[in-house]
Design goal:
By secondary structure, the chain is an all-alpha fold. The protein contains 11 helices and no strands.
Length: 279
């Protein structure tokens, strides 16, 4: 009997700890969001989903894309270069802005809690505005070309990379920080000799991921006048040259695969060394 009572008390204690830790409310809110979104989507879009013309229109549009007109590919050389340059320069701009500021956004390296909150607020603000909206603003301000795309993608990426960098700093081993401090090292020495060596591989990985994202996003911002292959894509869409559209999308797909492969090659070098194999 005492064993049963002890088990019941243990179960009750465990249930109470779950409630206290907030998991019950997290699961409840998550369920409400998922089910609520599902029912709302069905409520407002059921007529379109149940309409047979939706599928037939889609099939008809896709059918007009075949066969792809690969004759347009030789004309895409400049657009491909612009898209690649836009993604690289946007990533460089993002790293230049976010990396120094991330040390102020991390509690372990920030000068003061108020500075930490301010830096995090800046990153949140940069992430709040979608890059497409930023691109529209910069196109209206700067004009057409790749510069608005670089600024839009770079500033938005700075908000995301800054968050990733700051979180990586928060996870560093405090023992190494204390070791540098105990030997008389300043805050600068702590950052250079303790923090950066621990986060550099993670930061490179985050940066590569963001570059891959920026390459894809540069196609989107190019559609509103920021240059690159996106401009060629929207031009073909406007005149309903769907065979050209499919050929351009095929080129984008190939370029994305090449960018991903290059990023993965760098990651393997970082993880396994020069040989590329785990020894």
């Amino acid at each position: 009997m005492s064993v049963i009572n002890a088990s019941a008390a243990s179960i009750k204690s465990h249930s109470g700890s779950v409630l206290m830790n907030g998991w019950f409310f997290i699961i409840l809110i998550g369920a409400v969001l998922i089910l609520g979104s599902l029912f709302y989507t069905l409520n407002v879009s059921w007529d379109l989903l149940a309409n047979s013309r939706t599928l037939s229109n889609f099939i008809s549009t896709v059918g007009e894309m075949f066969p792809p007109n690969f004759a347009v590919v030789p004309t895409l050389g400049k657009a491909i270069v612009e898209t690649l340059v836009m993604s690289v320069m946007a990533t460089i701009l993002a790293v230049f802005l976010s990396f120094p500021l991330s040390f102020l956004a991390a509690e372990k390296t920030s000068l003061h809690p108020s500075v930490c909150y301010m830096a995090k607020g800046i990153f949140n603000a940069l992430r709040t505005i979608p890059e497409l909206i930023m691109a529209i603003i910069f196109v209206a301000s700067v004009g057409f070309g790749i510069l608005p795309g670089i600024l839009a993608l770079g500033i938005h990426s700075a908000g995301m990379l800054g968050k990733f960098y700051a979180e990586a700093i928060e996870k560093v081993d405090t023992g190494l920080i204390e070791a540098v401090e105990s030997s008389g090292g300043s805050r600068f020495h702590v950052i250079v000799f303790s923090v950066i060596p621990q986060i550099v591989s993670h930061c490179i990985d985050f940066t590569l991921y963001r570059w891959e994202y920026n390459f894809r996003a540069s196609t989107v911002v190019g559609m509103i006048g920021a240059g690159g292959i996106g401009f060629q894509l929207i031009t073909s869409l406007r005149i309903m040259q769907y065979q050209d559209v499919l050929a351009i999308l095929a080129v984008v797909f190939v370029m994305v695969q090449l960018v991903d492969a290059f990023g993965n090659m760098i990651r393997r070098k970082l993880l396994f060394g020069e040989s590329g194999t785990n020894r």
